[in-house]
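Ticket #4471: complex job returned nothing on first submit. Input attached below:
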Amino acid sequence: MAVDQFFLFLAVILIAARLFSEVAVRHGIPPVIGELLAGLMVGPSLLGWVTPDETMKLLAEIGIILLLFEVGMDTDLYRLARSGTKPIVVAMVGFVAPFVLGYLVCYYLFDLSNIVSLFIGGTLTATSIGITVRVLDDLKRRQSDEAQIVIGAAVLDDILGVLTLAFLYQFAEQKQVSLAATGEVAIYIILFMVLSPFAAKLVGRVIERFSHTASTPGLLLTMALSLILLFSWLAHAVGAPVIMGGFAAGVALSQHFHLTFKASKSVFTARVQHKLTEWFAPSSELHHALETQMRPLIHTFAPLFFVMVGVSLNFNTVDWSSGFVWQLGGLLLLVAFIGKLAAGFFIKEPRANQIAIGLAMIPRGEVGLIFAQLGLAQGILDISLYAALLLVIALTTLAPPFLMKVFYVRYLPEA
Amino acid sequence: MAVDQFFLFLAVILIAARLFSEVAVRHGIPPVIGELLAGLMVGPSLLGWVTPDETMKLLAEIGIILLLFEVGMDTDLYRLARSGTKPIVVAMVGFVAPFVLGYLVCYYLFDLSNIVSLFIGGTLTATSIGITVRVLDDLKRRQSDEAQIVIGAAVLDDILGVLTLAFLYQFAEQKQVSLAATGEVAIYIILFMVLSPFAAKLVGRVIERFSHTASTPGLLLTMALSLILLFSWLAHAVGAPVIMGGFAAGVALSQHFHLTFKASKSVFTARVQHKLTEWFAPSSELHHALETQMRPLIHTFAPLFFVMVGVSLNFNTVDWSSGFVWQLGGLLLLVAFIGKLAAGFFIKEPRANQIAIGLAMIPRGEVGLIFAQLGLAQGILDISLYAALLLVIALTTLAPPFLMKVFYVRYLPEA
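Support reply: We reran it on our side without changes. The output follows.
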């Protein structure tokens, strides 16, 4: 892409995102819907000004990892731990229910093959953590109890999604699966989840120390950014979703990340504990500096992500006259809604919270798109199956922000 | 490029830039040298970790237009106007002297063809405004009188460079040139230079107004960024260098940009004058908000630009055993230094200022590289001619920051 065209694309995306989200907010619509619609508008679905170009997609990826970094910075692991098994239950039900229901619909009602039915079921398991978080943000509810459960569940869901994709991919290629290989990836991911915040914290501590004696300006910001990029790369290297890297780095540098020990009687152990507690003590100075300096970058890059999701939803590929597309799409849509909504009812929470949690898990967004596009590219899905999935992804992405807003205003007004 | 590789590249570049510039500063070396060396190190010249990839180059371009935006914001047009014809004289001499001397060396001493000699002469006229500005910045002298002259001259030089390139390109393609076509481009560029600050100011005023009633955060920043991108695109569209767009947008939104009129006796004219003065009055609020919010973006993107200049200087393409490369390279290097140094002596300034101005005009940087790479791609230059130019570009880029630092400390210590 020529540099002038790149500048024009970027300006068009930024302006459209801003314009649509501004108009949306003034009409009581969540701004993320404005950004998704901006993408549909300037993308190939309508005007065709912007194409899903590689460079733009890479910039959008910076947007989503920075957003997840911010989410991580606001995540209180101890509070998350207090919600106990709830996020795990929500993630598991929200994974199994759409998978099984989707498989059954495809295999028995539409006579699709085993691998195709599995792949479509897998696509329906996706949860777009980016869109979920943005809606909770827009509603100013990211700190609520149910939001903590949803974020925990969405992170787990992303991991389950990556494992499913690896599994199905292998199955499609070799017509058989090795549970050992999938298990190995799962172990790497769990190791990454457990160890990376500690590693990121250590690096963060070093950065903080150097930032006090730096002779060039902006050290803190560029080093923190490098940390996020490196951990995202590392996440991908161990087989986890890249956004896990941003999230882990955010958790590590958050104000809530610290160590607590039971008091020990041994003098040596007590000293080690003291040292460790000191090392891992959160630094509100670092936290504050990062928040203020990171914000302009997040404001610039995050909208790129949501607009590019809209740009990637190319409605022109759908054969709107096909009855098959509408029938399959309609049934899968139902499955996609019910499967995730059900997740909320398997945990002990007030009824309103159960529904809010279920609604928040519905958006498939870019995660579903990645599944569907891979299926098309691999020849597992034909164009009409892809179209049906596109319909499901578009509606599960665009409807929940509205539904959540209406539901929150009515049943969970701010305390 | 895969997303994980992109993250890794970006992190490596950011960390290397920071590390090298930090070490440079602690040894009294200008940080920009650190960033250029970081590029040589991680690029194909040494480690080969980062290749001059398209996406990275586009991100680097954002860096340079943002840097020129910042320069524009700090530029006082009235003060620039007070330096009168000085920047014009410096730009003209700094253009003609290396061109003619370079041509003579190639044509008479090395028996090169007419078009090749012209092209090499043209390459020697380049001035890298980015590197010049950074060095003045590093020395904390961007606001000095001689810096104003240098910045004005460097901007003019960039325009002359683009015209020369268009001219030589046409000559190489069609074996004849149309002065009319070049003249047309020149007129467009002059129109852009004169009109764009007013247009940018009007847009800036609209942005400012909306930013007060915005319902979504970060409007000011993303809209200002869009403005810079759009004006850079527009600059390219009229045939001017893209950086002119960033510069024009910066000038328009600077605290110094305002209109003054002679008092008019006509009531109507006086009223129009009053309205215009009001509209074009600088807003220190907008200026301050832009400065603080733009800084994190500049700190992130600008080093990318300088590192990518280093990455693009691939020393492995040079046949170091060739006597021809060393002879031609050596003579052209002499011409490149003398030609620009001479420029300072054609204006009335204290001797020290004359030398400082001449030194500041020497860096060829990315502008010279673009010339040389185009010549190679078009088959005008063979690999040994390209190698000789690469040598000239590398040394004229790396030496002046040192020379300027030493010169300033010794002969122009801070007032």
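Chain B has one domain: 53-306+321-411. Closing as resolved unless it happens again.
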